[in-house]
Design a protein that fits this description.
Two copies of one chain form a homodimer.
Chain A (H helix, E strand, L loop, with lengths): L1 H4 L7 H6 L22 H10 L1 H17 L5 E8 L5 H7 L9 E5 L5 H4 L5 H4 L8 E5 L8 H4 L5 H20 L2 E9 L2 H13 L9 H7 L2 H14 L7 E5 L3 H18 L11 H9 L2
Parallel strand pairs in A: 1-3, 1-4, 2-3, 4-5
GO molecular function (chains A, B): polyphosphate kinase activity
Organism (chains A, B): Ornithinimicrobium pratense
Keywords (chains A, B): Kinase, Transferase
Chain lengths: 288, 288
Amino acid sequence: MAKIKRTIETDRPFADALRVREGFVLSDLDPRSTPAFTGKKDDGKAALLEHDDELSGLQEKLYAASVGGNSRRRVLLVVQGMDTSGKGGLMRHVVGLVDPQGVQITAFKKPTEEELSHPFLWRIRKRLPEPGKIGVFDRSHYEDVLVVRVHDLVPPQQWARRYATINDFEQGLVDDETSVVKVMLHISSAEQKDRLGRRLDRPDKHWKFNPGDIDEREHWPAYQEAYQAALDRCNSESAPWFVVPADRKWYARLAVQQLLLEHLRALDLQWPVADFDVQEQKKRLART
Amino acid sequence: MAKIKRTIETDRPFADALRVREGFVLSDLDPRSTPAFTGKKDDGKAALLEHDDELSGLQEKLYAASVGGNSRRRVLLVVQGMDTSGKGGLMRHVVGLVDPQGVQITAFKKPTEEELSHPFLWRIRKRLPEPGKIGVFDRSHYEDVLVVRVHDLVPPQQWARRYATINDFEQGLVDDETSVVKVMLHISSAEQKDRLGRRLDRPDKHWKFNPGDIDEREHWPAYQEAYQAALDRCNSESAPWFVVPADRKWYARLAVQQLLLEHLRALDLQWPVADFDVQEQKKRLART
């Protein structure tokens, strides 16, 4: 734990450093910076592994509380970011270290015809985590004010109303004992160019590439503007945004792990107390 | 790879050794045996880790084929076993090593009122894996001929019809490009007693214990009989059963990993070929 303790100034250093505050300007944040962490790449990778057990343990306690203690407490991690910003790697290298039984990942793709025939939160609600689980959204309801806004997929007056709808929705989740952790992985346009280039260089990565990814790069400024609006308008006290500089993959992974840890620690989870007489059950078992 | 290669006699040694064949008698199989593996515990643990990358790689290829090659191929791992047989540990230590985005685990609990109002396969069908995914069932439709049969939860003539229904259902999955891998974790009654006792000894494991678990031990012979019937009657050529001796957790985990590997290797998966001109896309990217 040594490497990360060096960097800790408060109980929630990553949440403090990465939280979007009044007047936040996305373009002012350096995507190569490493807020709340003074170490280098190797330190960051080591810190990630050092905290693996704690994250797994807290996840198990969260789950145990739902099974043995009837708790409704659950966590929803919302991950947004431009193409190649590292959402998939995060699922694998952070979320993947937790017991898969305690996690429910949903990757929201282009909506289907059926999904489009319903209000935009319909498909989101269906994938909310059950009590005791960590739900993870790889893209989310925010696409409905990001890609939809950039490409005018619905009239402006329609997407404009969605910010308030999202705030109400998220407040409802928080009121229902859900810890909502919203993360934007922030990469630079130059870094995206490099990452797309590497996909084109490797035949085993071609399946991840789509020529449309390059078309989307033309809309980079419009996307940044749409992100800025989402960060400004859906940043409530109970469900704030965290913007994670993500040009360095190792940092982004560590930061999201630490954000999860800080939120889980704050729940002060306890093992549920047995609702049976342990000695009596031991005697019963002995007789079988 | 050395340790496991020593033990390999055919291309599919675990599938060959563990497959249920005509005349198989469950009670004749020693739950402490380690078919197809001559190593000890440390060798088994090392072999599990050594094959982690291959399993991850094959899973990625399976997923890539669905995204980039329109393949409908998917895998369904069905895991059955008595309480404490190690289903949860398998999810964590074998399935958990694969990219969580490629896996969909469902733990089937006691059916809800809504589920009971539908045919027994209704809730199962809703959780079948999508193309490219590895679906994992922690308990399954087999509960409808196991706990249901042992406790007469439906009339005998009703559960008796289910074996044929299950065979038709599974044939349909196989016809729809699903590799069905059915595993029974086989523990002894004495081992279960030890494992329940250890749960009672540890306050952080009390939440996993239920006094009903001891009541169920009285039905041990009836459960073994119900398992034998399921193994006999739902053991088709295209969706055979594999019985994994599970008193040694390390062996059971290795065996299920190897069964998955052997099935995935047999699919001869290839990276999909790009459906775009790679050089042209590199030029387009360079211009952005």
